[in-house]
Structure prediction request, 141 residues.
Amino acid sequence: MLIRFLFAFFCSIIFSFILTYVFKRRGPGPFHGILYFFAIIFLFTAALGLLLTPVGPMYKNVPWLSIVAVGLLIMLLIAELLPHHEKAVTIKRKAKKDEEDEDEEVLEKEFGIIVIIILVILAAAIVYAVTSKADTFKMSF
Prediction:
């Protein structure tokens, strides 16, 4: 059980760095919100990825795919909800109507990508559940 928490811990660290520096989202607290994002992602990953029935391949009795999938989905949801932080970029003011239309298009594209990722993960889980052995689905505690 400790190995699962360590794996969730390290995945949460990686996803919080990706959220802060790749997606350029900022949160409250030190280090541009890395600790804040880490706490949120780790709690969700520990709760959903570890306490639910493990689904997916196991490595040293750790359901690594379900832990990574939950952490990735939580990171993408946080990235969708928080505004993009544009550092040292001069923004020219456009008409208010054009700016709102562009923002809406960007949000629609990001939401579409998240929905596609969720559907792909769901399809992969269904295929795995249908093709795997019956003894694979056991409670972990």
